[in-house]
Amino acid sequence: MATCEGKEALSSLLNRVPPLLTDLYQFTMAYAYWRAGRHNEPAVFELFFRDNPFGGGFSLFAGLSDCLLFLQNFTFSDDDVEYLRSVLPAGTDPAFFSYLKELDCSSVSVSAVPEGSVVFARVPLLEVSGPLAVVQLLETSLLCLVNYASLVCSNAARFRLAAGPRRRLMEMGLRRAQGPDGGLTASRYTYIGGFDLTSNALAGRLFGIPVAGTMAHSYVTSFSSLEEVWPQTLVPSGGGGPIDFICLVKGWLGRVCQLLGSKTNLVREGELAAFLSYAIAYPQNFLPVIDSYSVSCSGLLCFCAVALALYELQYQPLGVRLDSGDLCRQSLEVRRVFKECSKQFSVPQFESLIIVGTNSISEQSLAELNKKDNEIDVVGVGTHLVTCTRQPSLGCVYKLIEVRGRPRMKMSEDPEKSTLPGRKSVYRLLDSDGQCLPVYNTLLLDYFANTLQ
Asked: Which of 41, 278, 302, 404 is most buried per CB count within 10 Å?
């Protein structure tokens, strides 16, 4: 995983997750512990989720690196403390605020499952031990850092399994994410979950994730005629004088239309102008969206003409993006045309141009896509990936399991909310079919054995 935990990543985390990003009752409980003289009692909490997400059999654990950065830099500023003084009850002892000013996590220790590991319901992901008041204050922030990160990472893994190992996946959900932090978190942890690329430029800068992008329909529809193309020339990659690129592309368009039996009068001049303009700007990175009007009557023809002209000038276009309609059927048609052009015009590279598919892709539609013949090389996924449409939350909880070395257990009217007391170790065992089984530790095994006797 190519990530960057430098100053920029750290600054981003601290700006997004300061110690005040928590529930007010954490401070009222910390004050009550402090007031009772219990704030330094050794305590242990564990963080886990109760049910595997998306109706599946596993999750991926994510967010650990953010949790560790948060703990390493946990401190309240003078402004933080003054704000807390203004919102806590007026009778709060002023000495408590002096206590908060000196607070850090130097006495806190964490045991955790490795980041990116496959995990199961009710298995402790984090075990946090330290002074009771301090580890209590950490609850909401740690849950915030783990819940969505693990959920979206798990969702990404399910998309990867549905896509198979060959097809590349690009995360492009920033515009649909739940706010800027949701977008950054999604970009980072879908990469851990198996995606290859992101469209999020800031995530690329902060975390070293490969970034990619094509063009929007708005760029295509902003053009209406060839007169809007400027400059109109392109210098060959190998050097030499500028070539009239519009004239060159027009010649190729006629040859492509003749080859495919298409009518040149159906080609949208504005679409051709947009492709020309973009190709002149980025002759080595030409990958337009071709369904702004009609793929077969205009978009594909325009692309082939511009791409063949780029090849003539010794440039290497990348491919096309399809964003509507039957992606499988259209990708087959696009690849067929690429092969015909490759053979007719003796341009072997044309046959292997990339086809990107985007269009509200879900895990189900991706699985169905794999069952059909298609030529899609890269799938871009947004909404259903970053919003985790099938399940909005992983439901992680943070429960007290030990105080002063003595196990603690929550009993509940709802058996599902009861907790198992004491510290636990995580074992990875396999059944007779080679499938993973979650087992907590000998304490749990002994607990059940004694109960069943």
From this structure: 302
Closest C-alpha to 390, from 409, 366, 363, 356: 363
Strands of 209-308, DSSP E: 233-234, 243-244
**Cβ atoms < 10 Å from Cβ of 235:** 14
In whole angstroms, how far apart are CA 429 and each of 133, 207, 426, 441, 445?
36, 33, 10, 11, 14
Q: What does the pLDDT look like over 140-164, one tens digit per residue? A: 999 999 999 999 999 999 999 999 9
Amino acid at 51: D
At residue 49, the 3 state secondary structure works out as strand
Q: What is the CA radius of gyration of the chain?
A: 28
Nearest residue to 362 (alpha-carbon basis) of 337, 388, 392:
388
Q: Is 276:202 a contact under the CB 8 Å cutoff?
A: no
H/E element, 429: strand 427-430
Enter the pTM of the model. Answer: 0.91
Burial track 2-21 (b if 16+ CB lie within 10 A, e otherwise): eeeeeeebeebbeebbbbee
Query: pLDDT digit string (tens) for 276-318?
Result: 999 999 999 999 999 999 999 999 999 999 999 999 999 999 9
